[in-house]
Amino acid sequence: MATSTSATKPVKPGRQKPAGTLYRGREGMWSWVMHRISGVLIFFFLFVHVLDTATVRISPEVYDAVIGQYKNPVMGLGEAGLVGAVVFHALNGIRIILVDFWSGGTKHQRKLFWGVVALWVVLMVPFLVRHLTNVFTH
Amino acid sequence: MSDQAPGASYAPALETPRSPYRRSKATRTNWELYGWLFMRMSGLALVVLVFGHLFVNLMTGDGIHQVDWGFVAGKWSSPFWQVWDLLMLWLAQLHGTNGVRTVINDYAERDATRFWLKMALYLATTIVIVVGTLVIFTFDPCADPNSMLEICRAAGSTVPTITN
Fold it and tell me: What ipTM was assigned to the predicted interfaces of this complex?
């Protein structure tokens, strides 16, 4: 194994991190990872949601039975998670547009990420209060 | 491996610095550029469409508990919500398909795997868009005989009854 050249902190042999990985971590990478995961999650839900809505063409009874599945507490929590994913994907998407089109976008991309997180909390708190009240006190 | 000498012809020829070059020789179209632009344009539209959809369906009235066949009939008896949901369906499905296409291209390394995953993706997308569009346009909000909707009662009143 090659010896470390930057000897600020001596690291025990065998516990060193692999050098020169492609991704640098921090806000830029993690927002990308979260954007990707939330996007794929929303995509699969969209597929299910179009098909469950399509049962309106069968009969009112069938649709009400299918959509009734969304009204139990477990699904209610799932909906909260899904809306959380949608809101993050939407806000981070606006951040990506700003990084692409606004001259200061790349310079301020970290601050923009924390702006996304803050705005996500601001939107999710009232949503969760209203939605979880609907789910658990009906 | 081979008997080729180090630094021989398998390395690409080194150009002189700043020599002019063409960025894309493989394609003649700007397809990927339009895809990139579509993701941003549809994304902005979807923020409005999806947030509106979530607010009306989950935040008003009884929230999730108000959603039943009658609720859908009430919305889709109006062209406003038909157009809203149609735009949302097409933009979200195409935006999502292009996103998943990118994910497949990134992670599926074998050519055949990549090809068949994308074929499955495009098939699913076609089914969702066709089924969804048909449902929005062929839906009859008065299919429930007990419907209390205005338009259903108006239509019902023109039908001759046993008393006249």
Answer: 0.80
Domains and CATH numbers, chain A: 26-136 (1.20.1300.10)
CB contact under 8 A, A57 and B70: no
> Which three-class secondary structure state does DSSP give residue B74?
helix
Residue B64 to residue A130, Cβ atoms within 8 A: no
pLDDT at B2 over 50: no
Q: How confident is the model at residue A9 (pLDDT cuts 50, 70, 90)?
A: low
Model pLDDT for residues B120-147, shown as the tens digit of each residue: 999 999 999 999 999 999 988 887 777 7
Asked if the Cβ–Cβ distance from A94 to B65 is below 8 Å, we say no
Q: What is the mean pLDDT of residues B48-54?
A: 95
C-beta separation of A53 from A64 below 8 A: no
CA distance readout (Å), A61 to A57, A103, B14, B78: 11, 54, 71, 22
- Mutating which of B69, B90, B94, B148 best tests the A interface, going by the most A Cβ atoms within 10 A? B69
Pick the CATH number of B31-157 from 3.30.505.10, 3.50.50.60, 1.20.272.10, 1.20.1300.10: 1.20.1300.10
Q: Is A93 helix (H, G, I), strand (E, B) or coil?
A: helix
Say whether residue B54 is in contact with chain A using an 8 A CB cutoff.
yes
Chain B residues with CB-CB distance to A54 below 8 A: 131-132, 135
Contact A54 B132 (CB under 8 A): yes
Which residue do the tokens 């009306």 mark?
A: B56
Asked if pLDDT for residue A131 goes beyond 50, the answer is yes
Each residue of A44-56: pLDDT tens digit?
A: 999 999 999 999 9
